[in-house]
Amino acid sequence: MASISEVLEAANCIGLVAFALSGVFKGINAKLDLLGVSILGFLTALGGGIVRDILVNSVPKALTGISDITTTALGIFLALLLYKVFRKDITGTKPVKIIDAAGLSAFSVTGFLVGAQSGLNGFGIVLLGVITGTGGGLISELLTGKVPSVLKEDFYASCSLIGGILFLITYGKFSTEVSTGITFVTILTLRLTAILKGWRLPRFGLYEERD
Amino acid sequence: MASISEVLEAANCIGLVAFALSGVFKGINAKLDLLGVSILGFLTALGGGIVRDILVNSVPKALTGISDITTTALGIFLALLLYKVFRKDITGTKPVKIIDAAGLSAFSVTGFLVGAQSGLNGFGIVLLGVITGTGGGLISELLTGKVPSVLKEDFYASCSLIGGILFLITYGKFSTEVSTGITFVTILTLRLTAILKGWRLPRFGLYEERD
Amino acid sequence: MASISEVLEAANCIGLVAFALSGVFKGINAKLDLLGVSILGFLTALGGGIVRDILVNSVPKALTGISDITTTALGIFLALLLYKVFRKDITGTKPVKIIDAAGLSAFSVTGFLVGAQSGLNGFGIVLLGVITGTGGGLISELLTGKVPSVLKEDFYASCSLIGGILFLITYGKFSTEVSTGITFVTILTLRLTAILKGWRLPRFGLYEERD
Fold first, then answer.
1. C-beta atoms of B63 and A124 within 8 A
2. Blockwise average pLDDT, block size 10, chain A, 211 residues
3. B: neighbours with 3+ CB pairs under 8 Å?
4. Which residues on chain A are in Cβ contact (under 8 Å) with B50?
5. Residue B146 and residue A148: Cα distance in Å, rounded?
6. Where does the Glycine transporter domain start and stop, copy by copy (chains A, B, C) (predicted)?
7. Which ranges of A87-121 would DSSP assign to H, the alpha helix?
């Protein structure tokens, strides 16, 4: 049977492709040029991890290793191909959302682990995972002049957050394998359920408008 | 009598609460969901210090220590409570502006000190303090799609800037206690006067419009 | 004859002035106040280098050294003077675009060199140069609520990108002098040609609109 670290690695690859795809289509929607679209693909896939590494004071792995870059480049190429074929934004479709969920889960868990190994406090650990999982998307929406969707809609960062709290509870008590495994499965299950059921958090507004 | 470092610490706490409050209401105004509102509270209170620590190449204190996080969480909780009770944005009121001024002053001074102790040049020291004092607010406005108010209105960052120049002049000449004390009092006085008198800087415009 | 490092240093100075100028006029266009305009000048000139240094985990040179700051301050002063005299945005004129091209080339090459010396992978090296060359402009456009022009128009970051690939091919094979020299001249030639010929990259759009 596959070990949890193998599962995480696979989910990480899937996530890079899904995030690159999402970045490319965000760029196309914003009418960026070819370079802008590619940059958005790279930043969406790798931005969360880069910010994570900056926060724990190390040179971003995405800039030193080779595998994440290659996978992301493939994802961007695939996205441009899909755009040529379908001529429409496929990021809202269920298959893409499902592979995106794998990425969110794997990225979050990696962030929690890096945080715990860097001696952060509980808040820092959870924050690092949430940033790793959602930071890339946030950066790309910021660059295209949007209020990051992660802040205002959908049950997305919340899955990562709940996973983080579970990680805090289990890490140290159980083996790292078990703790990361439970966290990964929980985030994935939460996110997939949220996609199916259309969960979202309560929203605020100073005046009771419909929008 | 309280030492200057005790005063600074108290002002820092007050500032975290004021900044968290301001972040929460910015989030509510932007119709974010519960998580988005909380994230904005955290980023407004802690973002300036996080950027400061990244710039001098250390792991952000907010992610390793425990006290700032706890105070900020209390501030967010208080803000949500105040929102439930008053149902309106209280960040424009004088009491909130005054406790915010305490935060601006304490955060700025902390930034100047960290800059001086990290061997930055004069520009770097002043910049670090201004970023510590105003960076959190800037990040939260950026995330909600606004041009940071610190860049275009009010006599706010200017107080921090003037304090920084005073710090440069006094640091090394007098004891750290005296130098930080004078700087803190000056920023606070400037900001409180600016609130009372409605000071602002000259603005530019390529065409002489009224706005 | 001047060595390549002397040429680079001169181009770097010219670039700081050009970038500061561009930042100041972006700030004036966005109706910022005096402080905001100055901050935008500093960030446009120094922001790319600051992000570069953060990425390779060192304290930004702009905050420790003295020469870049001074040159940038002069550039800001010059820009405010030019604004007083001409009362219009001169950043779109050919002379400014040409000195800006010198900056883009010098900044990019510096970034490639820092990347190579920090042990980044090829992607990281190219990215570091592109960020050094275009990051300051991107930050200032982000702060004034615009979608960064580098992502959507003009043949600008592309010059840096092509230079980066050339640098990857030549670095290590030839002396650093030759490699950086060829790269610098290539970026400069590409950018100047792009200005003259009005080159741009293909743009995408999900619906075939005219804009």
1. yes
2. 79 92 91 91 95 92 90 94 86 86 94 93 94 93 88 86 96 91 95 87 60 40
3. A, C
4. 55
5. 12
6. 11-83, 98-170
7. 94-117
DSSP, res B40: H
The answer as to whether C207 is a domain residue is no
Residue B206 in this model has a pLDDT that exceeds 70? no
**What is the domain count for chain B?**
1
User: Is residue A152 in some structural domain?
Assistant: yes
What is the rounded CA–CA span in Å between residue A199 and residue A197?
6
Q: Which domain holds residue C10?
A: 4-197
Token readout for A70 is 């290659």
The verdict on residue A17 lying in a domain is: yes
Closest by CA to B154, choosing from B103, B105, B194, is B194
**Predicted pLDDT at A209:** 44
Are residues B29 and A206, on separate chains, in Cβ contact within 8 Å? yes
pLDDT of residue C146: 87
What distance lies between CA B3 and its chain's CA centroid? Answer: 22
- B211 belongs to a structural domain: no
**Percent of chain B residues topping a pLDDT of 90:** 62
What's residue C210's pLDDT? 40
Overall size of chain A counted in residues: 211
State yes or no: pLDDT of B209 exceeds 50.
no
Question: Which chain C residues are closer than 8 Å to A62 by Cβ?
Answer: 123-124
Query: Please, which residues have CB within 8 angstroms of residue B200's CB and are 6 or more apart in sequence?
Result: B153, B154, B155, C33
- List, as ranges, residues 61-120 from C with C-beta within 8 Å of A: 115, 118-120
ipTM over 0.90: no
Please report which residue ranges of B118-175 form alpha helices under DSSP H. Answer: 122-143, 157-170
Q: Give the whole-number percent of chain B exceeding pLDDT 70.
A: 96
Cα separations (Å) of B173 from B159, B166, B167, B168, B177? 22, 11, 10, 9, 11
CB contact under 8 A, B63 and A121: yes
Could you tell me which chain B residue has the CA closest to the CA of C37?
Answer: B151
Pick from A152-161, B67-76, C99-108: least confident? A152-161
Structure tokens at B166: 């005073």
Q: How far is CA A165 from the centre of its chain?
A: 17
